[in-house]
Specification:
The protein is mostly helical. Helix content is about 70%, strand content about 0%. The protein starts with a helix and ends in a 17-residue tail after the last helix.
Length: about 220
């Protein structure tokens, strides 16, 4: 693997690690601290945040999606998921879903004072729903392709699939108060993917050198075995 490619992969890993770590911590904080202490109605779109607080919070979440997007983009460009159609389409869907999450976060600012049954809230909620669906399907497809490709090693090859499974769980939690906990789990799976990208070793000599002809494998002798 070329030095520039290794550096690009590690940068993608770092981006994913930072975004995913903050995502996981954010989900834990919201679930364990913000929700129990809030006085905001759960029928308000900004729940559990006040309308004023949702603005910086949404900008923060949007920035985390950008970091994750860059990490997944680096994964897609690395070829570690393989060259199959499933890998290509899956990673495109995961990237599209992550981009839509960014759009949904910024769109939330404009409807922060609406109720959950209002039209604007329904539209933005639909954006999040489609985003999570695309992300889940994308990571599942790319995760299966990665297992078949065997270009990620040991536990690393399971990380894209784990992100897909976690995203599937988010679909069921999207309209519940347990959503932040699901986000935390999803963030941890993305963290594992980021670490996998950063620590993916270069090819070893054994991986790159061709096998000697069968007649020359034993003690350097020619002829038959």
């Amino acid at each position: 693997m070329a030095k520039s490619k290794i550096e690009s992969l590690r940068l993608a890993g770092i981006s994913c690690i930072v975004g995913a770590t903050a995502t996981a911590l954010g989900g834990i904080v919201v679930q364990g601290i913000v929700q129990p202490a809030t006085t905001v109605s759960d029928q308000r779109w900004s729940y559990p945040w006040s309308s004023a607080a949702l603005v910086p919070v949404s900008v923060l979440w949007a920035s985390l999606h950008v970091l994750v997007f860059l990490g997944v983009l680096g994964f897609a460009r690395s070829g570690l998921a393989g060259a199959s159609r499933s890998a290509r389409v899956g990673l495109m869907l995961a990237l599209a879903g992550t981009a839509l999450l960014f759009v949904g976060e910024l769109a939330s600012i404009g409807i922060r004072e609406q109720g959950t049954d209002d039209t604007g809230a329904a539209i933005v909620g639909g954006i999040f729903g489609v985003a999570i669906l695309l992300t889940a399907v994308g990571f599942l497809a790319a995760g299966i392709a990665t297992l078949w490709a065997r270009r990620l090693r040991d536990w690393r090859r399971f990380t894209p699939l784990s992100a897909g499974i976690a995203a599937c769980a988010l679909l069921g939690l999207n309209s519940t108060k347990a959503l932040p906990a699901g986000v935390a789990v999803y963030g941890l799976c993305l963290l594992a993917l980021g670490i996998a990208l950063y620590r993916q070793p270069t090819q070893t000599t054994a991986d790159t050198l061709p096998l000697a002809p069968r007649s020359k494998r034993h003690d350097g002798r020619t002829g038959s075995d």
